Amino acid sequence: MNYRHAFHAGNFADVVKHVALVAILLHLRKKEKPFRVIDTHAGRGIYDLAGEAAQRTGEAAGGIARLTDLAGAALPVALATYLEIVRGAGAAHYPGSPLIAAQLLRGSDKLTAIEKHPEDEAALAQALARFKSAKPACADGYARLAALLPPPERRGLVLIDPPFEAEDEFAQLARALAGARKRFATGIYLVWYPVKSTADSDAFAGEVLGGGSQDVARITVDIGRRAKDDKDRLSAAGLLIINPPFGFVAEMRACGEILAPRLGTKGSAKISVSDLGTAS
């Protein structure tokens, strides 16, 4: 599996992930105390949807391209803010997580965006250059994370959105989360993963709960298989949110009701938002 951002920018999973990201950041902004965002697998920052990588998969056609009818509609704040940021990226361009986060920082908030591929990190640095509070870093996100926690602000969000290039990515992800939670138990964690096997994703969620994360929400979005020859295409993805903000689950359910009839090539996605509660 390889879900590097350039090939999947603006697809159905990006839409749901980025709406969730915006919802969390808007919550953090409600208090005057500054916060920090750590993006462990930040990518390039912005993507050309007319470029070779995005055109090779064509996935944005079943994602952000299907939301044009929402312009001017009355929407939940997180969804409306997300769409405003995307429109601000310009025609045929899509902002990645670090660029979305950077635009929601206040003067005292900080963003650390980590990307291990030097070429992508150089593009990321250029995308973030105008944001004084955003700092890119060329490093392995898993390895760098522990050194960044707890952040000086003592509040914030850790976004872990790996490309799943490694066969043991779920194991790496679980270890990174366990270590991070020991250092920064009160932080909010937003974790993305592909759903290729329901058993594997359920096992991962169970491991997170069993590891001591007591307040966890899960979002799953499934657009269904498109054809037999598309069996290797991403058709479902999940998010785990550790320490979700108050009201997050309700807001994401409201957003999901609007997004589900639009996402996917046939506009018939299934989006579930659940509160997994306290570990047993």
General description of the model:
The protein has helices at about 5-10, 10-30, 50-55, 75-90, 95-100, 120-130, 140-150, 170-185, 200-210, 250-260; strands at about 35-40, 45-50, 95, 110-115, 135-140, 155-160, 190-195, 215-220, 235-240, 270-275. Helices cover about 35% and strands about 20% of the residues. Helix 2 (about 10-30) crosses helix 4 (about 75-90), helix 2 (about 10-30) packs antiparallel against helix 10 and helix 8 (about 170-185) packs parallel to helix 9 (about 200-210). It has a single domain, classed as Vaccinia Virus protein VP39 (Rossmann fold), CATH 3.40.50.150. The two termini are about 30 Å apart. The strands form two sheets. Strands 5-4-1-6-7-9-8-10 form an eight-stranded mixed sheet, with helices on both faces. It has a two-stranded antiparallel sheet with strand order 2-3. Helix 6 links the parallel strand 4 and strand 5. By secondary structure, it is α/β, with parallel strands linked by helices. The relative contact order is 0.18. It is built from ten helices and ten strands.
